[in-house]
UniProtKB/TrEMBL annotation:
Its EC number is 3.1.3.11. The gene is fbp. HAMAP family: FBPase_class1. This is Fructose-1,6-bisphosphatase class 1. Binds 2 magnesium ions per subunit. It comes from Candidatus Nitrosacidococcus tergens. Pathway: Carbohydrate biosynthesis. Homotetramer. PANTHER family: FRUCTOSE-1,6-BISPHOSPHATASE-RELATED, SEDOHEPTULOSE-1,7-BISPHOSPHATASE, CHLOROPLASTIC. Residues 6-195 form the Fructose-1-6-bisphosphatase class I N-terminal domain. Its main location: cytoplasm. GO terms for cellular component: cytosol.
Length: 335
């Protein structure tokens, strides 16, 4: 006898508890989990399979793609296009909407994903991950266009991410809290190991890429300056700093022991209001963090309230422990 709850069983139990979860969503999530297992295996064996390093191509963001960015994207597309649960997909690695081939039936959901987050870390054996967001296909739509994907984060049905670290973990919200599952490689299943994950309200740990400091706006300059002043400064406590450069790892850390993560608006490239992408990075992570009791903001408005204008648009991100994010928001007032 065992008392393990698998991802499959968990989703089925949620299904009976909440009418918002139907069999299509359950099927979709199980299929996404299969993709994550496949990507986990590829990441794990990447050196042996000679799939490390750059692909020599650029994505729509003008960023160099790694071989594993493209491979992970193809895994997701091939695993999900035939299922009948989706009417379209959006991926960080593909400029246009990914439509469902004609021979397959169209479903009631839209899937948006970052197939491999933190891929600059892949060659140095640091955690990477997959981030995803699920939206409803608007009523009556079978061949969604960009405008059908451009729904604010508040409309998300479900969001999750998988982090390929020392263990492979899947973190999921369907709008009723946040749960974490560990991949048991021996049986090939995700097992509920971290039920009801919560973000502590207070923290003394911040994460930001300090090399961009000269480009930040005044409110973020002030906040970080005060953190660095520690016990002797206005905050009267010492802060610790972390920067993994994989959002999946940072958010996982915040779900475990609290913290604040920032990729704020800066003046580095005025055409880019931030580094992270709204639809498949900021929105799903904000949904998860808020479901765990944390907070997310651009500094000026809640991330989940941002009205999207482009499927690949960027947005400033300030997320994590409630009281610290509130502090940063208060510094933005009147800026
Ligand atoms: P991606 O690999 O999907 O392009 O995303 C990387 C993101 C995010 O995971 C991380 O927080 C940030 O970019 C790292 O940025 P820096 O390289 O500026 O540190
Ligand atoms: Mn990413
Ligand atoms: Mn990516």
């Amino acid at each position: 006898m065992h008392n393990h709850i698998s991802l499959n069983q968990f989703i089925s139990q949620e299904n009976t508890k909440h009418s918002s979860i139907d069999y299509d969503l359950a099927g979709l999530l199980n299929q996404v989990a299969i993709s994550c297992k496949r990507i986990s295996n590829l990441v794990n064996r990447s050196g042996l399979m000679h799939i490390l390093g750059a692909a020599g191509t650029e994505n729509v963001q003008g960023e160099g793609q790694k071989k594993l960015d493209i491979i992970s994207n193809n895994v997701m597309v091939k695993d999900l296009e035939w299922t009948g649960y989706l009417s379209g997909m959006v991926s960080e690695e593909v400029e246009e909407i990914i439509s469902i081939p004609n021979q397959y039936s169209k479903g009631k959901y839209l899937l948006l994903f970052d197939p491999l987050d933190g891929s600059s870390n892949i060659d140095i054996n640091v955690s990477v991950g997959t981030i995803f967001s699920v939206l409803h296909t608007p009523n009556g739509v079978t061949h969604p266009k960009d405008e059908h994907f451009l729904q604010p984060g508040t409309q998300q049905v479900c969001a999750g991410f998988c982090v390929y670290g020392p263990t492979t973990m899947l973190v999921l919200t369907i709008g009723h809290g946040v749960n974490g599952f560990t991949l048991d490689r021996d049986i090939g299943d995700f097992i509920l190991t971290h039920p009801n994950m919560t973000v502590p309200e207070d923290t003394s740990e911040f994460a930001i890429n300090m090399s961009n400091q000269r480009f930040w706006e005044a409110p973020v300059q002030r906040y970080i300056q005060e953190c660095l002043q520690g016990k002797e400064g206005p905050r009267s406590k010492n802060f610790n700093m972390r920067w993994v450069a994989s959002m999946v790892a940072e958010v996982y850390r915040i779900l475990t022991r609290g913290g604040i993560f920032m990729y704020p608006r800066d003046q580095k490239d005025p055409s880019k209001p931030g580094r992270l992408r709204l639809m498949y990075e900021a929105n799903p992570m904000s949904f998860i963090i808020e479901q765990a009791g944390g907070l997310s903001s651009t500094g000026y408005e809640p991330i989940l309230a941002v009205k999207p204008t482009h499927i690949h648009q960027r947005v400033p991100v300030i997320i994590g422990s409630k009281n610290e994010v509130s502090q940063v928001i208060s510094y933005h007032k009147g800026n």
